[in-house]
Design goal:
Elements (H helix, E strand, L loop, with lengths): L5 H10 L6 H22 L32 H5 L5 E2 L2 E2 L7
Antiparallel strand pairs: 1-2
Length: 98
């Protein structure tokens, strides 16, 4: 395994688009031995390699969704009549980003 030092942690943080203070990196380095030993303990669990990885701890059921029923779409005039500011058949919104 790659030797973990402050530069390795800074590179990993940079790749994940965040940064920490030098004190936070030092704290993480101090705790990293514990983190590594925990990973090693998890690796010793019998059958862990055969287990299916979980992305969410609960089964997700989507059986409550209704069936799609095709319907006639609303007319543009009906939709736009309640809009405050309309331009060229579209709702005009204020500029949000610079």
């Amino acid at each position: 395994m790659k030797k973990v030092n402050k530069d390795v942690l800074k590179d990993a943080a940079n790749r994940l688009y965040f940064d920490m203070t030098d004190d936070q990196y030092e704290t993480l380095l101090e705790e990293f031995d514990t983190i590594q030993s925990e990973f090693e303990l998890m690796g010793q669990i019998v059958g862990v390699d055969e287990a299916t990885p979980m992305t969410f701890p609960f089964d997700v059921s989507i059986d409550y969704l209704r069936d799609d029923v095709p319907e006639e779409p609303l007319k543009a005039e009906d939709v736009l009549k309640n809009a405050g500011n309309v331009k060229d058949g579209q709702i005009k919104l204020p500029k949000v980003v610079g």
